[in-house]
UniProtKB/TrEMBL annotation:
UniProt keyword terms in alphabetical order: ATP-binding, Cytoplasm, Kinase, Nucleotide-binding, Nucleus, Transferase
SUPFAM superfamilies on file: P-loop containing nucleoside triphosphate hydrolases (SSF52540)
Localisation: Cytoplasm; Nucleus
Entry keyword Kinase: yes
Family: Belongs to the GLYK kinase family.
Lineage: Eukaryota, Fungi, Dikarya, Ascomycota, Saccharomycotina
Highest taxon above the source species: Eukaryota
Organism: Saccharomyces arboricola (strain H-6 / AS 2.3317 / CBS 10644) (Yeast)
Name of this chain's protein: YGR205W
Gene3D superfamilies reported for this sequence: P-loop containing nucleotide triphosphate hydrolases
Any one of the GO CC terms: nucleus
GO terms, molecular function: ATP binding; kinase activity
Amino acid sequence: MCDKSKEILDYTTEFLDKYIPEWFETGTTYPLFIFVSGPQGSGKSFTSIQLYNHLRQKYGDEKSISFASIDDFYLTHDDQLKLNEQFKNNRLLQGRGLPGTHDMELLQDILNKIFNHDQHPNQETVTLPKYDKSQFNGLGDRCMTGQKIKLPVDIFILEGWFLGFNPILQGIENNDLLAGDMVDVNAKLFMYSDLLWRNPEIKSLGIVFTTDDIKNVYEWRLQQEHELISKVGKGMTNEQVRAFVDKYMPSYRLYFNDFVHSESLGSIATLTLGIDSNRKVFSTKTRCIE
């Protein structure tokens, strides 16, 4: 593990090791969610996996620890093609990536099984989906089988680039950024926020990666794709990656700064890490909500 990755992991494990025991001391039977949010390529997926391994090692068989990415809930390739046709004039909803390109019924079903396990005591596991971004020359497709997790779940880690973004409620007509294709994206974002980070039934810790220049995403995402190609032998070209990232920039410009400054991803507490282009931490901040 490189020094910068270890630095990030040290900050995040220290944060979780403080607040998770306090959560268990409350005696609640509801799962604790850990939301990890940051721009594409910032290291949130890598960090989330390391945190998952850390918690598995720490709690062993005493607790059921689960991990998923919001990306795993993307629509299947066939359903994405149908969405492309439905919103054929909206370039932001062509292909996977933005709010509106996920299977929300599947996500809702998984959450229901996690939260309402006591209503189905004979169900011992639930299967999480898995998305393969290398399929269809980098366009991606959801796999038929995924990870089985043990019920009841004690800690559920969920990572994603727009977790915590809040849709615009007022002043839409006066917001120059919220026009054209972004209107549809903003409308669809309500489903995600109401289901996850603004859901009063979900108690959560938040980990946020921010950066000194959001354009770092271009280089980070290129690095990711090159790593994917080296592993599986297929993926997007550099030009496709740049065009892919272009679709995200309107969302970053509209939501990202307000999201970072709110420090409210977690309903219990939020850790915000500022990282530079080399993913080295230059600032840390923790806000306790409850």
